[in-house]
Design brief:
With about 180 residues, this protein is an alpha+beta fold. It is built from 4 helices and 7 strands, in the order βαααββββββα. The strands form 2 sheets. Strands 1-2-3-4 form a 4-stranded antiparallel beta sheet, with helices on one face. A 3-stranded antiparallel beta sheet has the order 5-6-7. A hairpin with a 2-residue loop joins strand 2 and strand 3 (about 95-100).
Length: about 180
């Protein structure tokens, strides 16, 4: 089944893509912030070297958290100002590949050229070469279309990703075996 979608990027789509790419960083920043808060409470309770502690731990943790929050708030706005980012988009996925239309520009990508697909709570990200196409889940406007798209991804990309992952794991296992000898 072919899947045809029409949509425009919104700030939340870009934000979701940034979050998808920085999952580990976001969690690390939250962990650092939590540790800083617990350490500050401990220091305040013990009344020792509070000023030094605040400058050594709390201030850097707050700066890191502010940088992360700023990045997540500013990056989508900046990216959407780039030429063409607000242009209407369409995606036509079939057994042959994916045809993407942005404004007047058309490009067809064969499934073999799609190197990776990331799935987020609200977006799909398709990667080929140094390009990426974000597909907001809201664009499907129905469960049937999203299921058909997901089946195409599973058939043509996800299986290949697993095979490549298995091959890389086998290669690492062989390397370990040679080092053990």
């Amino acid at each position: 089944m072919d899947v045809f979608l029409k949509f425009r990027y919104e700030e939340r789509d870009i934000l979701d893509a940034v979050r998808l790419r920085t999952r580990g960083v976001e969690r690390a920043a939250l962990a650092i912030g939590a540790v800083a808060i617990f350490a500050a409470i401990y220091q305040l309770a013990s009344r020792g070297a509070v000023r030094t502690f605040v400058w050594a731990v709390v201030v850097p943790a707050l700066v890191l958290a502010s940088l992360l929050a700023g990045t997540l708030a500013i990056v989508p706005k900046v990216l959407l100002r780039r030429r063409g980012m607000r242009a209407p988009r369409s995606l036509d996925a079939s057994d042959e590949g994916v045809t993407i239309t942005i404004g007047e520009r058309h490009e067809t990508i064969r499934w073999d050229d799609v190197s990776r697909v990331d799935r987020g709570a609200r977006i799909y990200a398709l990667y080929w070469g140094d390009e990426v196409m974000l597909v907001p889940r809201r664009a499907f406007r129905g469960r049937d279309r999203e299921e058909a798209f997901s089946k195409l991804l599973e058939r043509f990309v996800s299986a290949r990703q697993r095979e490549q992952g298995d091959a890389a794991a086998d290669e690492q296992q062989e390397d370990r075996g040679q080092h053990d000898r």
